C-alpha cells in the first residue's frame, strides 16, 4: 500500500474538517461545539496518520470509532434538537465510519503481509 494514495483517508480528513468548521455556521447547543471540534480534529489527525503510514489497522479502527462517536455525539452531547449541528454530526459520523470500514480490510492485509515478509 502506497503512502498518500488512499481515498478513504482523504474523505475522513474532509469530513473532519467540515465537522470542525461547521461550528462556525450551524446553530450550536449543548456540547456541540466542543464535540464537533474535538471529534473533527481527531478525524483529521487519524486520516493524516493513515495516509502517511498505511497498513496500521489499530489507527483504522480508532478512526472508525471516532466516526461512530461523531454520529452518536448529538445524543450524548445534548444537541440532537439543534438541527444543523446534529445533522452535520449524524451524516459526517456515519460517512466517516462507513468509509473507514472499507479501508480496514486492506490495511489489515497489508499489516499481515509486512509481518510475513520480515
Could you characterize the architecture of this molecule?
The protein has 118 residues and is mainly alpha-helical. The protein has one domain. 77% of the residues lie in helices and 0% in strands. The protein contains four helices and no strands. It has helices at 7-21, 32-52, 57-76, 83-117. Helix 1 runs antiparallel to helix 4 (83-117) and helix 2 runs parallel beside helix 4 (83-117). The mean pLDDT is 91.
Please identify the structural class as seen in this structure: mainly alpha
Tally the helices: what do you get?
A: 4
The helix/strand order is HHHH
Radius of gyration: 15 Å
Low-confidence stretches: none
Number of strands: 0
How many domain units? 1
Shape: elongated
Strand content: under 5%
Helix content: over 70%
Please give the largest β-sheet: none
Distance between the termini: 16 Å
Mean pLDDT over all positions: 91
